Amino acid sequence: MAKTDKKIALLKRRVFRVRKNMKGTPEKPRLRVTRSTKHIYVQLIDDMAGRTLAAVSSVALKIPGGNIEAAKQVGKEIGERAKALDIRQACFDRGGHLYHGRVKALAEAAREAGLQF
Fold first, then answer.
1. How many CB atoms lie within 10 A of CB 50?
2. Residue 1 — pLDDT band, cuts 50, 70, 90?
3. DSSP 8-state code for residue 82
4. Per-residue model confidence as pLDDT tens digits over 32-78
5. What is the 3-state secondary structure (H, E, C) of 21-74?
6. Which of 11, 65, 87, 110 is in Cβ range 3.0-4.6 Å of 79 for a Cys bridge?
């Protein structure tokens, strides 16, 4: 098994561990963060209906997303879109990544914009 295959397998284990106790509802959707080396993506997901309520990414905002400043902008934008949909609370799904760096910056910016986790 190559080094990257092992990393992906460990990431998938962490994703399932985080997700097993988390379910998004229309009142309290799941805030899912996906991170790549170049971009960061975030979605508000209603798991009961199986649909995405809002989505923002550094690609959609046309900003380079591999840094903390881009994560802050994406977090602020998802907070504003959630407020427009009258969503005040969300379950934070960090996607198996550690809560630091870009993931933490995105979460803090979303909190400042009015979302509660």
1. 8
2. low
3. H
4. 999 999 999 999 999 889 899 999 999 999 998 889 999 999 999 99
5. CCCCCCCCCEEEEEECCCCEEEEEEECCCCEEEEEEECCCCCCCCCCHHHHHHH
6. 110
What Cα–Cα distance (Å) separates residue 10 from each residue in 32, 62, 97, 110?
A: 18, 31, 11, 27
Element (H, E) at 92: strand 91-93
Domains plus CATH for the chain?
3-112 (3.30.420.100)
Please answer whether residues 66 and 51 qualify as being in contact, where contact means their C-beta atoms are separated by less than 8 angstroms. no
Burial class (CB in 10 A: 0-12, 13-18, 19+), 12: exposed
Q: What are phi and psi of 48, to 5 degrees?
A: -65, -45
Of 28, 37, 5, 17, the C-alpha closest to 95 is: 17
Q: How far apart are CA 8 and CA 55, in angstroms?
A: 24
